[in-house]
Amino acid sequence: MKITFSNLCSHAFHQVKISPDGQYIANAVANRLVIRRSGEELPVIHVFECSRSINYIQWSPNSECILTVNYEFSRIEVHSIMDPKWTAHVRDPSFPIALAQWTADSKSILCTAEMGSRLAIWNLSKKEQRYINSVKFRDKCIETSPDGKYIAVIHKRSGKDVLGIYHSASFISLQQFEVNTVDLDNMKWSPDSSCIAIWDNCLYHTLSVYRPDGYLCTTYNGYEHGLGIKTVNWSQDGKLLAIGNYDQTIHLLSTMSWDLITTLEHPSTLNNSTAHIQLFEETTFAKPQIPTLETVIACNDYIKQDIHVLNFYCHVDQIIVKRPFNLPSLRLDYNQPNPKVGIGVCQFSKDGNYLASRNGKLQAYSVISLSEKQDGIQMERIYYF
């Protein structure tokens, strides 16, 4: 496989986003929003000047508009790719913005306040706004179904966790039902939008799956004593459900029977018993240097690497074969809230054959082959993938 890299582009706050249709790439620098057309040259087609510095950007689902957020001044600006002269401004001084996202029809923007408790819906086409009260979180209370028909909202009413199902276009309440959690932490729709998984906070290892009409499909309790669930993700075909835990393990469930298939671990030490795990360390060569064949270590006959001389940077992955090998770990301060421990990211590949996960404690992420029982671990610390 040949890997090529583009020229370096400046950005701020890691705000570089590819449009959903793959035609454009947006990056934010200070108060400038740069739109490039995807391709080898990445030509700049638009540069939008915003009134404030940009902290966050997000493409609309139809790739025709992009929003920018400045959290300090609670200001949202929307720019159109099709009509660069058109722009929209959303600002409410009494509503400090904590989260902003598009609806599935690309006509409205959802915003939650810094102190939580209220969800604002700004309809750009009708120039209207409405509110939904009693939301539980400011940053994870909203989840749009993959088919774009429903929006699930987590409410807290009279000390009870309530899941609200709304129509995504009109925001009419379709269903409101209490869930069987002690302290609901988050939720995740299934790929076919037929059900939604919810789970408790870090003190309870409990996951429940509900249908949008409120019917309880199943409840999974990993163990009674121990840390709880940090993240959950479905495979693309909906047949597998991966549960990333605070104890640095992944529970893999079959959605056909809701039984535990296997438990995947993030080992901190690799020895001969973990020979199926491959270690990858990325080496970067600057302009004057050209990688040689000695910089590539081949592992078995089926692993081959191509060397290419690039006019900017060249990256070569090395496979470390030394065992035992201690993975570098981060020293966590457990006196601080929300320590970065456990499986924070857990994602399936499109075909469902691979599972990528990131352990917050280790400076590595793992790519696990579900069909061939092989693992790969990236050594460099990962900030985003």
From TrEMBL:
Domain of life: Eukaryota
Pfam short name (any one): ANAPC4_WD40
Record-level GO cellular component terms: microtubule organizing center; MWP complex
GO biological-process terms attached to the record: microtubule anchoring at mitotic spindle pole body
InterPro entries named among the record's database cross-references: Apc4-like_WD40_dom, Centrosome-WD_assoc, WD40/YVTN_repeat-like_dom_sf, WD40_rpt
Domain Anaphase-promoting complex subunit 4-like WD40: 187-267
Stated name of the protein: WD repeat-containing protein wrap73
Naturally occurring in which organism (per UniProt): Rhizopus azygosporus
